[in-house]
């Protein structure tokens, strides 16, 4: 056999049947077909492969596992976060369309919206991440996409995604979520989260104004026990529990008290009375 033929049709192959605990890494674009009639070209590779850039066994298994964990119908893997965000925009928006993004959105997302999407004629408008069902008032006739991000980047606002989705879907508007900080397995991987500062306290003023009981109530809707932190005194414990908190956390109210034992007893008494 000519050496050129050997390059294309080698006679020697590695022994088949090797199975690894880890998914093998497949790298390549060209797919080899046994027969001419088997050749096809479609990105949805459900039962066979057509092109490596549409997905190799490595990528497709990763996507299938993510979809299974997230309870999704399908998962499409892309090289990075910006590619994922752009893919959603290009799939849902065209020139003349309107999209909404929360003010707490990922910074580079905001840059993409105000740069690339604006140049393509898509009007991307910001909204208060805590707007909830009020998003209905921000929808226009040409709105085709509403972005959510919960928790939000850096500031960690918890959005009322079900309320936003219900309002948008009533107008047949697609809702997308960037859930980098809150994927669906999070409730199974954390025992509790701490939320605060709920009330004003000297040690937390550097972080900004207190978040308040209303935001504590919204955060407590997340399927993980939430502990209220920041400015929590014994006489405020009932307010925290009434707002949905599963518990409270406090240091200064006890450690800075001239009678810490009495302060601690007051805390236990307030908790027991709820």
What does this structure look like?
This protein has 274 residues and is α/β, with parallel strands linked by helices. The chain has three domains: 18-70, no CATH class; 83-178, Aspartate Aminotransferase, domain 2 (3-Layer(aba) Sandwich); 186-272, Aldolase class I (TIM Barrel, Alpha-Beta Barrel). It has helices at residues 3-8, 57-70, 81-92, 107-119, 161-170, 186-189, 212-219, 237-242, 252-255, 260-272, and strands spanning 98-102, 123-127, 143-149, 174-178, 193-195, 226-229, 247-249. It has a four-stranded parallel sheet with strand order 2-1-3-4, with helices on both faces. A three-stranded parallel sheet has the order 5-6-7. Helix 3 (81-92) packs across helix 4. The longest helix is centred in the first third of the chain and has 14 residues, at 57-70. It is elongated. The termini are far apart.
């Amino acid at each position: 056999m000519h050496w050129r033929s050997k390059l294309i049709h080698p006679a020697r192959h590695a022994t088949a049947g090797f199975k690894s605990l880890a998914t093998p890494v497949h790298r390549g674009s060209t797919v080899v077909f046994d027969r001419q009639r088997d050749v096809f070209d479609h990105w949805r590779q459900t039962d066979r492969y057509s092109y490596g850039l549409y997905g190799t066994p490595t990528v497709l298994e990763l996507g299938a596992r993510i979809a299974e964990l997230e309870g999704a119908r399908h998962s499409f893997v892309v090289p990075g976060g910006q590619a994922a965000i752009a893919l959603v925009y290009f799939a849902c928006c065209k020139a003349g369309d309107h999209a909404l993004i929360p003010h707490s959105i990922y910074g580079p997302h905001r840059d993409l919206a105000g740069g690339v999407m604006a140049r393509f004629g898509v009007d991307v408008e910001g909204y208060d991440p805590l707007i909830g069902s009020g998003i209905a008032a921000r929808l226009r006739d040409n709105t085709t996409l509403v972005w959510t991000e919960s928790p939000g980047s850096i500031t960690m606002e918890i959005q009322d995604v079900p309320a936003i989705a219900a309002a948008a879907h009533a107008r047949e508007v697609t809702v997308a979520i960037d859930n980098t900080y809150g994927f669906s397995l999070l409730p199974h991987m954390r025992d509790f989260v701490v939320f605060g500062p709920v009330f004003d306290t000297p040690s937390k003023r550097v972080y900004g104004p207190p978040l308040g009981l209303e935001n504590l109530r919204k955060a407590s809707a997340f399927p993980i026990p939430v502990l209220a932190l920041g400015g929590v005194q014994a006489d405020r414990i009932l307010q925290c529990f009434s707002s949905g908190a599963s518990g409270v956390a406090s240091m200064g109210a006890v450690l800075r008290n001239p009678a810490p034992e009495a302060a601690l007893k007051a805390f236990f008494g307030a908790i027991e009375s709820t």
